[in-house]
């Protein structure tokens, strides 16, 4: 029997085990920005009508500008990138897929469920010659590893020569826009996945975008069917993409929170070994015990069964939450020492 994949955000399981209401917990387990982007005013009609073609076209045009791709580049709006992760393995007959890992485990699980031979590779040099598809999360979750643009393009070209493509999951790239390969999807056989919820702090909206060549975009659009994304989600995304002045301040607040988190970890004696703008990865010999001790104080972080010395810790919303984390860490680690 296949073991369920662990994810961040499982607050209901944490409360069932350690007690307390959800409101009493500090959830730092997801890597989702704790501050959501300011929402537009939504009229009653947007909830009552099916999303029309004009709204979809406006949102996709705003997304192209935001992601820095040409006006006519193929782009598909989807109900979250997880929906795409489930769908991508069905675009080709199963052969071998190479996944740079360790990484977000749903990629491997989805390809395996569709009959693919899944090979996890530690580096590009380990990708086998039999692989027709590659998957790279960039920056990687959970360690923040970044693969250079020219290496991704070359790999996509190689996989294309084998009849396949490269999937680049840029779920955490909005805060690291300089590493994005979104502008290259029309020139090489590559699919780029974009999460809306993580950077904009709106994971509950369930919205994502796929950038690719025209043939793959058409196939995915047909598979998703009409009205794949709700009118409210499209309206909120369009508002966020076009609000450049607010975006600048929004990014700056993420950077300040990340600096604050690094300061807390350093003062607590924890070793940061990676991360992105939205989370830190720390290494500690008693990571699982530290996880339990934090949970007893109703603070949730992310542990890993495959890496028992790792914890992933997301951003705190404000100084009060950050101080709560620091006090808990120092109390726990002082007791252990």
Task: List the defining traits of the structure above.
337 residues, alpha/beta, 12 helices, 40% helix, globular, Aminotransferase_I/II_large, pyridoxal phosphate, NHTrfase_class1_PyrdxlP-BS, CobD
Secondary structure topology:
Blueprint (H helix, E strand, L loop, with lengths): L10 H8 L7 E2 L16 H5 L4 H15 L7 E4 L2 H7 L8 E5 L5 H8 L3 E5 L9 E7 L11 H13 L3 E5 L20 E6 L1 H4 L7 E4 L2 H11 L6 H12 L1 H24 L3 E6 L2 E5 L3 H10 L2 E2 L1 E2 L6 E5 L4 H18 L1
Parallel strand pairs: 1-11, 3-4, 3-5, 5-6, 6-7
Antiparallel strand pairs: 2-8, 7-8, 9-10, 10-13, 12-13
Helix pairs in contact: 3-9, 4-5, 10-12
Describe this entry's structure for a reader.
The chain is globular. The protein is of the alpha/beta class. Helix 4 (81-87) runs parallel beside helix 5 (106-113). The longest helix is centred in the last third of the chain and has 24 residues, at 244-267. Helix content is 40%, strand content 17%. The strands form three sheets. Strands 2-8-7-6-5-3-4 form a seven-stranded mixed β-sheet, sandwiched between helices. The two termini are 40 Å apart. The mean pLDDT is 95. It contains twelve helices and 13 strands. It has helices at residues 11-18, 44-48, 53-67, 81-87, 106-113, 149-161, 197-200, 214-224, 231-242, 244-267, 287-296, 319-336, and strands at 26-27, 75-78, 96-100, 117-121, 131-137, 165-169, 190-195, 208-211, 271-276, 279-283, 299-300, 302-303, 310-314.
């Amino acid at each position: 029997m296949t073991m369920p994949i662990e994810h961040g955000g499982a607050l209901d399981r944490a409360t069932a085990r350690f007690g307390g209401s959800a409101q009493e917990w500090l959830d730092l387990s997801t890597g989702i920005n704790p501050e959501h982007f300011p929402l537009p005013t939504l009229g009653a009609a947007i909830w009552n009508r099916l999303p029309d073609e004009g709204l979809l076209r406006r949102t996709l045009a705003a997304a192209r500008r935001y992601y820095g791709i040409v006006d006519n580049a193929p782009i598909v709006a989807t109900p979250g990138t997880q929906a795409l992760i489930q769908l991508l393995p069905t675009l080709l007959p199963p052969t071998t897929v190479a996944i740079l890992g360790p990484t977000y485990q749903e990629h491997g699980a989805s390809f395996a469920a569709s009959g693919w031979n899944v090979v996890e590779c530690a580096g590009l040099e380990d990708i086998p010659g039999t692989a027709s598809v590659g998957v790279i999360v960039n920056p990687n979750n959970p360690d923040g590893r970044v693969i250079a643009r020219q290496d991704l393009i070359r790999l996509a070209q190689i996989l294309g020569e084998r009849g396949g493509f490269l999937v680049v999951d840029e779920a955490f790239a909005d805060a690291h826009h300089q590493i994005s390969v979104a502008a290259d999807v029309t020139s090489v056989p590559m699919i780029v996945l974009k999460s809306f919820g993580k950077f904009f702090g709106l994971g509950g909206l369930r919205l994502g975008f796929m950038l690719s060549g025209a043939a793959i975009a058409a196939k995915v659009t047909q598979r998703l069917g009409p009205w794949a994304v709700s009118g409210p989600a499209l309206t909120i995304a369009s508002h966020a993409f076009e609000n450049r002045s607010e975006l600048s301040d929004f990014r700056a607040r993420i950077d300040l929170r990340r600096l604050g988190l690094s300061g807390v970890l350093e003062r607590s004696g924890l070793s940061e070994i990676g991360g992105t703008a939205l989370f830190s990865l720390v290494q500690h010999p008693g990571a699982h015990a530290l996880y339990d001790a934090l949970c007893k104080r109703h603070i949730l972080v992310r542990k890993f069964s495959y890496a028992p010395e790792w914890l992933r810790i997301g951003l705190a919303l404000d100084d009060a939450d950050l101080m709560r984390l620091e006090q808990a860490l120092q109390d726990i680690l002082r007791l252990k020492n």
